Amino acid sequence: MRHVIALDVGGTGMKAALIGADGSALHEARRATGRERGPDAVVASILDFADELAAYGEKHLGERAAAVGAAVPGIVDAERGIAVYAANLGWRDLPLRELLSRRLGGVPVALGHDVRTGGLAEGRIGAGRGADRFLFVPLGTGIAGAIGIDGVIEPGAHGCAGEIGHIVVRPGGALCGCGQRGCLERLASASAVTRAWAEASGDPDADAADCATAVAAGDPRAVAVWQEAVDALADGLVTALTLLDPRTLIIGGGLAEAGETLFTPLRAAVEARVTFQKLPDIVPAALGDTAGCLGAGLLAWDLLSASASAPIPSTPSTEVRA
Known about the structure:
By secondary structure, the protein is of the alpha/beta class. It has helices at 39-61, 96-103, 114-125, 185-188, 190-201, 208-216, 220-244, 260-273, 291-309, and strands at 3-9, 13-20, 25-32, 68-72, 75-77, 82-86, 91-94, 109-113, 133-138, 146-149, 152-153, 248-252, 281-284.
């Protein structure tokens, strides 16, 4: 059965699947990334995992994988197939496409940024299905974004499009890791809500999920923390809506698991801020933590489709084969 390998490499774990031509997962597996062992060990783990998946496909599906799609965090040069930088994994300028292809005997490999790859899946087969323009915003440890246009994710001129988490919404506010102050992710990410609620509640072990539970129970301290995050998020999203005019706004990540505790006040806050802008549908992500893996599979199938439709050179090859 024809299939591709899909790999989603995270800071702590890797998710993988063998994806059939109809988009179904024929086999799924997970492994620890093993970043505590250093960047070289992480690369070895990725290559070994890919090798295991290829062997499984050959044994159980009757043939080797036709292509590989890999989603990785950090800065990614998808065109050259290089994982430029990932702070959590400790690598710089890693030629991951070449390494994977060589390990698997020359199979074609597509490399993508994890958030953009997740956005690709949400846009095509998840919450944004059917939308010609969408914006995918996962609210996790940080905040990122993926801009979808007619089923394709826009990477930007330098691979940095969609970094909504670094829109400054509170000038002069808390220092962000990017060097600016008052960035959106310092106020509205899951980690930001965790910090604020741990301080407000006096419980150092409290997290964003606990805050959401306390909000639902009517705790005024939690409501204040939550509303501050929602207001900051709405400010950032309206800036994005003004620039991008998406038809659908997809919110994912850990904070979105709060459901209507998040979406009801967020929709109201965004609606209160728009003037001439058209209000998009604001919906929860549908694919959960499988989005990156499914998106990697889509990258692999897209690569095969592009290769199949590439024009045949008009000049015959002069290569002589034995």
